[in-house]
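Summary of Year 1 activities. Much of the first year was spent building the evaluation harness for sequence design. The harness presents a backbone, in tokenized form, and records the residue chosen at every position. We chose the following record to illustrate the format because it has been used consistently in internal testing since the harness was completed.
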């Protein structure tokens, strides 16, 4: 690691020019005895994209050679973006013709050049690492050969399958194909069938395909299960050495009804002086999962638990995640505790982090706590009468912590979680919204407080650690969001493309309760960077926190497990041995990158499994009408989100009352003849026109548009009035106004009208065109006659 840093430091100096391996060896004064090891390190650094070797075998860092190293993110239309490894760099657009055989998810090196609009574009010049080893898709037999059509539309190539590689698949089967030959600039992709998943319509096939697509590991290796079996079922006397006994402290868990891996518990008491003592107690998973063990290696590989629509793929075997590590009620469990003493004006006057043993009083659910605190359910209040005063104190402290967090500028998105309810055969029967109640907010605020406290404590100790970081948004995206909310009548305060999170929260406060609330929240979320793990404490923009980590979920997140190890080692010794500290400093960047990547995969898989079931839910709703809100506007149509969170597309071809142009700046479609405007946040009524589970798409038609098309008669006779218009950007108002008999501005439309689905040129224009044509023909004939 030290030599690697020396190489990178030298290459980043302004005076450095690309050198050969031998020249680098001499410049760094590497002994001949270490020559081979040095060359192997250079080769490894090249494979990882840290350095680049030119055609003349000279080495340099990518950023000094007009190159970007990153992950290729493809879009369904065939183009892609290189997401740079280095934080802070803008994503690089790659034209379909410049992919160089790279596929979605590949780690690549791209050369930067300028596009037509002067924006940076890239060309893939090297593929460092292939992301796709297998492809999940539909087997299409062509007789003597076959193709597998990928389910993932971001993979632009069908996989060619030779006759000997069918693997027993039949036409129409859902299969897993292993890629044997990757596509080059002109060659196709080839593979062989390694697993037949089933026939279309088989119960559970859709989610199984998602599991295989993302290569989610369902079964645990035998050695991992053997280690899990060796873990004791309960807490033994020898396990209590060095732990503080909190078994008599009133402690509870508060989770969802179906949660089984209970990794956090909370306690709260009012001290004689009026201060609160908040205890956050987290399962001590690191006590049972030792560093370097088979359990640890498997947990690192998985990165996190994955919560699909019909199953959970845990990071740890159920014997641990649902057993000895889960803080089950009235059961002794080993924990790491973070005690925080808060004054009534929310000054943190004391905190302490230590190993402990607890016994929770009750396993509470969010619903129960909400019914006690909000509904004041007499039956539940009587049942939990010993705990109700603590719950009321928890509400008071949590709400004060939340107000304090918002005052300092944290961005608080207002999204209701949705849950797809399945029957016994995995078919969706209902989609329900799960609003964020006071019960969820209590746990959220207490976990945030613990994470910040732990992060700051160990940051000042300067020990190797993992942090949860969220960098400032890209200025260009913030400017785009600023223009968007301006078109809705809201003003976002920025300075030089930079924005304080408090200004963003002010916008969210202003839209709360309005039709555009959810859409503004969504657009803002898309405008921000993705949070990630890092070995450096870089702050958390969204939380307006200087220090932040993930400490509270070691059963389901590997970074939490790792920092528990650091905490336990430091608590046991009072410091870290030099060898241990050096090893962890070298390992933390790798763990952070792996954890961030596994989290991204888990989020994509979870979202896809939900979307599949949402499309399936709408299959028998074709022909029905629903109220919705426009959630997206593109050049090809409108995306509409229903109240149950299902989203579908109204294609622009279904907007038959006018020609619509796309106003990208305002994210709106504007009728050229009528002046009618469709904008994000508008409420509409739609009819479900179709649903395709394979493509995961839902087609809508606007109900009012269809009704107007039936009853308007001759559209050329006049322009229908009454279309709603929002004020243009900068008009300063948010109210709607009616605009009757709207006339297009001069030059804003071509003199073409729609008559019974046909495009006709008006008679006067057609007559003038015909006259001009005859005159041109006569003039040509005269010139020809003179020449003759």
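For this record, the design step produced the sequence shown next.
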């Amino acid at each position: 690691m030290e030599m690697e840093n020396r190489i990178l430091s030298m290459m980043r100096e302004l005076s450095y020019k690309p050198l050969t391996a031998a020249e680098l060896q001499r410049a760094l004064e590497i002994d001949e005895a270490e020559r081979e090891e040095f060359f192997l390190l250079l080769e490894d650094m090249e494979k990882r994209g840290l350095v680049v070797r030119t055609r003349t075998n000279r080495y340099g860092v990518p950023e000094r050679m007009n190159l970007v190293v990153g992950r290729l993110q493809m879009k369904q239309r065939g183009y892609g973006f290189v997401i740079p490894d280095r934080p802070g760099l803008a994503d690089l657009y790659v034209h379909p013709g410049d992919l160089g055989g790279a596929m979605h998810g590949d780690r690549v090196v791209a050369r930067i050049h300028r596009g037509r609009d002067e924006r940076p574009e890239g060309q893939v010049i090297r593929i460092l690492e292939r992301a796709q080893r297998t492809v999940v898709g539909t087997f299409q037999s062509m007789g003597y050969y076959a193709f597998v059509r990928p389910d993932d539309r971001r993979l632009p190539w069908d996989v060619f399958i030779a006759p000997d590689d069918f693997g027993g698949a039949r036409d129409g089967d859902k299969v897993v194909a292993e890629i044997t030959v990757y596509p080059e600039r002109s060659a196709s992709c080839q593979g062989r069938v390694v697993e037949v998943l089933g026939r279309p319509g088989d119960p559970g096939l859709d989610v199984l395909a998602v599991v295989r697509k993302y290569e989610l590991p369902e079964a645990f290796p035998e050695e991992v299960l053997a280690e899990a079996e060796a873990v004791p079922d309960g807490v033994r006397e020898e396990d209590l050495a060095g732990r503080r006994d909190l078994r008599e402290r009133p402690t509870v868990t508060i989770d969802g009804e179906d949660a089984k891996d209970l990794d956090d518990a909370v306690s709260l008491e009012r001290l004689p002086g009026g201060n609160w003592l908040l205890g956050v107690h987290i399962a001590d998973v690191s006590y049972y999962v030792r560093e370097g063990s088979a359990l640890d290696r498997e947990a690192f590989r998985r990165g996190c638990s994955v919560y699909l629509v019909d199953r959970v793929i845990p990071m740890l075997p159920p014997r641990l995640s649902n057993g000895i590590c889960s803080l089950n009620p009235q059961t002794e469990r080993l924990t790491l505790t973070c005690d925080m003493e808060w004054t009534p004006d929310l000054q943190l006057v004391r905190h302490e982090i230590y190993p402990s043993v607890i016994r929770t009083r009750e396993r509470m659910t969010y619903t129960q706590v909400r019914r006690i605190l909000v509904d004041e359910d007499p039956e539940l209040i009587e049942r939990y009468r010993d705990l109700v005063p603590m719950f009321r104190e928890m509400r008071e402290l949590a709400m004060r912590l939340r107000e304090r967090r918002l005052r300092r500028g944290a961005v608080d998105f207002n999204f209701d979680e949705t849950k797809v309810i399945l029957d016994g055969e995995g078919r969706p029967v209902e989609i329900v919204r799960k609003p964020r109640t006071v019960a969820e907010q209590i746990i959220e605020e207490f976990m945030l407080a613990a994470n910040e406290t732990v992060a700051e404590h160990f940051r000042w100790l300067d020990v190797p650690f993992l942090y949860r970081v969220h960098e400032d948004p890209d200025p260009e995206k913030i400017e785009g969001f600023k223009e968007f909310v301006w078109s809705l009548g809201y003003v976002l305060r920025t300075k030089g493309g930079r924005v304080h999170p408090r200004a963003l929260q002010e916008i969210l406060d202003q839209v709360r309760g309005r039709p555009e609330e959810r859409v503004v929240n969504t657009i803002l979320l898309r405008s921000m960077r993705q949070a990630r793990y890092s070995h450096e404490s870089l702050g958390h923009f969204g939380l307006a926190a200087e220090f932040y980590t993930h400490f509270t979920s070691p059963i389901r997140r590997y970074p939490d497990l790792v920092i528990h190890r650091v905490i336990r080692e430091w608590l046991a010794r009072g410091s870290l041995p030099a060898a241990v500290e050096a090893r962890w400093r070298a390992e933390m960047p790798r763990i952070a990158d792996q954890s961030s990547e596994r989290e991204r995969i888990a989020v994509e898989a979870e979202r896809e499994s939900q979307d599949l079931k949402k499309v399936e839910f709408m299959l028998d709703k074709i022909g029905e009408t629903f109220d919705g809100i426009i959630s997206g506007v593109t050049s090809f149509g409108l995306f509409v989100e229903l109240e149950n969170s299902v989203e579908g597309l109204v294609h622009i071809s279904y907007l038959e009352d006018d020609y619509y142009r796309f106003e990208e700046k305002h994210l709106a479609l504007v009728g050229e003849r009528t002046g009618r405007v469709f904008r994000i946040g508008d409420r509409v009524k739609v009819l479900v026109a179709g649903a395709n589970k394979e493509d995961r798409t839902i087609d809508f038609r606007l109900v009012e548009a269809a009704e107007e098309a039936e009853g308007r008669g001759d559209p050329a006779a006049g322009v229908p009035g009454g279309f709603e218009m929002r004020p243009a950007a900068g008009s300063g108002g948010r109210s709607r106004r009616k605009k009757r008999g709207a006339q297009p501005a001069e030059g804003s439309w071509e003199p073409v009208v729609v008559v019974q689905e046909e495009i006709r040129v008006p008679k006067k224009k057609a007559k003038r065109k015909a006259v001009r044509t005859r005159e041109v023909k006569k003039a040509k004939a005269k010139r020809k006659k003179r020449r003759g």
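Confidence is low (pLDDT under 50) at residues 705-776. Quantitative recovery figures across the full test set are reported in Table 2.
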